[in-house]
Design goal:
single chain; 380 residues; alpha/beta; Aspartate Aminotransferase, domain 1; 2 domains; 7-stranded mixed β-sheet; PyrdxlP-dep_Trfase_major; EC 2.8.1.7
């Protein structure tokens, strides 16, 4: 049985070119970048080059990139780092109910430490309303954190408009761009973004790698203590091989981002076309236009999500019920709950399908027909 992987929003397979690029850094260029001898200097050279590649994609300065272990650490560092550095100015933070748990749980922890957090609502398409953000802003608001593209529905928030709104406010603007970075072009200065999180394993790069962009005017309190790596902002010996792989992933993504986006958009259209041809009863969760090209969240009325996922897995089709970080949990999606309400039928019968490296039109057609057959069988 041929297996078809359609869960690229959870993680992506590594590109062989990235694996090949990383190999020498495990055995030949193995020095500690903080060491002053030739082995350390050589490792430092490649670390600096990687930082320049990443900065180039965001049109920022290399020194504004903090290398991390992934998107979760980057989110934690951005939110807690700003909160601790600016708590004498205010203790109010604004975020959105549909954020990734790396953001939501960090905000919940800060509430226990005396900070006040406003959680913005979204409409049924998953978008926030700028008027609500305007009303939530206060003089003591020190941080606004809004995800660029949602990891469950793919919905893209009005990042540029938010950045424009905050230009005349003292609050810093952070965005979790883990799903969006590499898929859509991002110019941090043009969008007025102060902090941005990204992860390597969403780009066909290695797990355990990521970064946080921090505008040089932002004060940040470190959250990991030890050595003076990353300009004293993030202690710990850098993962040179992983960071080289991350940089190569960014480089490759930059070269074919437009083509990939068009390809994933076509795959999404193909999937939906087969559903229509099969006269399948379904609806799409999320905004029809303001969405990432590789993520499709579909509601199949009357079908148990647990049964659907198990049956699809038996057919060799890998999809998800939402965030990978809650895989195996019986709790309903907090994203769909925010969109439709806690009792909505979409919560128990929706799946996330996400496209990526290795997916071609024939595979998607095959998967769509299997999904249709399983849905029809379970609906009876």
């Amino acid at each position: 049985m041929e297996r078809i992987y359609l869960d690229h929003a959870a993680t992506t397979p590594m590109d062989q070119r990235i694996v090949d690029k990383m190999m020498p850094y495990f055995t030949e260029i193995f020095g500690n970048p903080s060491s002053i001898h030739s082995y350390g200097r050589e490792a430092r050279k490649w670390l600096d080059e990687a930082r320049e590649v990443i900065a180039g994609e965001l049109h920022c300065k290399p020194q504004e990139i903090i290398l991390t272990s992934g998107g979760t650490e980057a989110d934690n560092l951005a939110i807690t780092g700003v909160a601790m550095a600016r708590q004498h100015e205010g203790k109010h933070i604004i975020t959105v109910k549909t954020e990734h748990h790396a953001v939501l749980h960090t905000c919940e922890r800060l509430e226990k430490l005396g900070f006040e957090v406003t959680y913005l609502d979204v409409d049924e398409t998953g978008l926030i309303h700028l008027d609500q953000l305007k009303q939530a802003l206060r003089e003591d608001t020190i941080l606004v954190t809004v995800m660029y593209g949602n990891n469950e529905t793919g919905v893209i928030q009005p990042i540029k408009a938010i950045g424009e709104l905050l230009r005349d406010h003292t609050a810093h603007f952070h965005t979790d761009a883990v799903q969006a970075f590499g898929t859509v072009p991002i110019d941090a200065a043009d969008l007025h973004i102060d902090l941005l999180s990204a992860s390597g394993h969403k780009l066909n790069g290695p797990m355990g790698t990521g970064f946080l962009y921090v505008n040089e005017g932002v004060k940040l309190s470190p959250q990991i203590f030890g050595g003076e790596q990353e300009r004293k902002r993030r202690a710990g010996t850098e993962n040179v091989a992983g960071i080289v792989g991350l940089a190569e992933a960014v480089q490759l993504t930059k070269q074919n981002r437009r083509e990939k986006a068009m390809h994933y958009g076509k795959l999404k259209e193909t999937m939906l076309q087969v559903f229509e041809e099969e006269s399948l009863n379904f609806s799409i969760n999320g905004h029809p236009k303001e969405t990432l090209p590789h993520i499709l969240n579909v509601h199949f009325p009357g079908v148990s999500i647990e049964s659907l996922l198990v049956n699809l897995d038996m057919e060799g089709i890998a999809v998800s019920s939402g965030s990978a970080c809650t895989a195996g949990s019986v709790l309903p999606s907090h994203v769909l709950s925010a969109m439709y309400g806690e009792e909505a039928k979409e919560l128990t019968s929706s799946v996330r399908i996400s496209f990526g490296l290795g997916n071609e039109e024939d595979h998607v057609k095959q998967a769509a027909r299997k999904i249709a057959a399983v849905v029809k069988r379970l609906a009876k």
